[in-house]
Amino acid sequence: xxxxxxxxxxxxxxxxxxxxxxxxxxxxxxxxxxxxxxxxxxxxxxxxxxxxxxxxxxxxxxxxxxxxxxxxxxxxxxxxxxxxxxxxxxxxxxxxxxxxxxxxxxxxxxxxxxxxxxxxxxxxxxxxxxxxxxxxxxxxxxxxxxxxxxxxxxxxxxxxxxxxxxxxxxxxxxxxxxxxxxxxxxxxxxxxxxxxxxxxxxxxxxxxxxxxxxxxxxxxxxxxxxxxxxxxxxxx
Length: 236
Known about the structure:
single chain; mainly beta
């Protein structure tokens, strides 16, 4: 009765994490597809997303009940005498609606991983990976409301080099603005909102994308003109 719903490779291409509709999470060998570990859920909620941290030391899951789970590659039972394997750290119900985004990033100008989730409840939640362990479970660091009326539909943690330099906040340590991580949030109003990843979660840019032929005519720019001509050509 196992049905796969989501899948992810770790950045080192050693493991394959698979999430199933009944809440089971399996770790497979990326080369042989041999099952290495299996985690049975406390509740049979569908795993909707699986993501790895950049250093392959963590992976996280989200499920259909608005919960986020965290797994860490460490010694079993936190005992250095025991072998290293994937260990379930904890699960936290962070959202009152569907989770639309789950992303790992890094601390500003560092290498330590960070984890955030975004839900249709308009909450952006960051987790405390440093203080999260098997005994205390997954801990929340902070939560912010990122939209007022619009509902978030997607979330991407990326680099500020996608933006013009004049839109980026200037760092204090002399690094170029293009080196700063940003969060791109999509909403059901067909907008892309760019936020900083610091505690302010400042929105530094909002872009409205074309959604229809009528919209292109009403908000025509040189870029939109190309799209309109292509649409007219297709109609002919």
